[in-house]
Amino acid sequence: xxxxxxxxxxxxxxxxxxxxxxxxxxxxxxxxxxxxxxxxxxxxxxxxxxxxxxxxxxxxxxxxxxxxxxxxxxxxxxxxxxxxxxxxxxxxxxxxxxxxxxxxxxxxxxxxxxxxxxxxxxxxxxxxxxxxxxxxxxxxxxxxxxxxxxxxxxxxxxxxxxxxxxxxxxxxxxxxxxxxxxxxxxxxxxxxxxxxxxxxxxxxxxxxxxxxxxxxxxxxxxxxxxxxxxxxxxxxxxxxxxxxxxxxxxx
Length: 251
Fold this sequence. Notes:
The chain is mainly alpha-helical. Helix content is 62%, strand content 0%. The protein has helices spanning 2-12, 20-42, 48-57, 65-86, 88-95, 121-142, 155-170, 180-195, 198-205, 209-228. The protein starts with a helix and ends in a 23-residue tail after the last helix.
């Protein structure tokens, strides 16, 4: 809701009510609050690529995957419907009732990502792959207690800042989907709500890239962390030190 509504405000306000930075801030705040809301219950699985990666690595039972994906899908779909209702009057005024994917009054990009006109399909795929690899690498670094992990209670905020950083630096080409759960459900909603099947054919059938590139990028991020950081971590200090001896943690 925070992310999509920030895009709607920038697009429908014709740049008078926010800029690219406000969109990035909106998504960062949304991620932070999502982690606070669900972190203690499920570990805050907000991203299908990350959930699938945990299943592949054996950190999450495969039997839980369908429930997590359904939850992510329903949450994202409901967010799109909420923002559509919130800004319906503005959408109608901006488009005169003609909801389009491309053109001078295109509004489909409020809800899902689309590649910039100059970006090739391989270039767009590489952008999403790289951005998601940075997302996973950043998340693993933030939660790496054997290295220089974040202070307890700050992980959600730092993850939101991480998403903000990805948007600030890697959002130009594709709008940084970096999450199949963030991209596909709103796309399905727009297909139903009046934009039609163009949402699946635009950008040389772009829709499959935000579904596959983040999964591969997520696995790449885990591999990078394992090879260059985790294998070199010092063992966690034992808690059973002799009485009276201070615990010294080194990195």
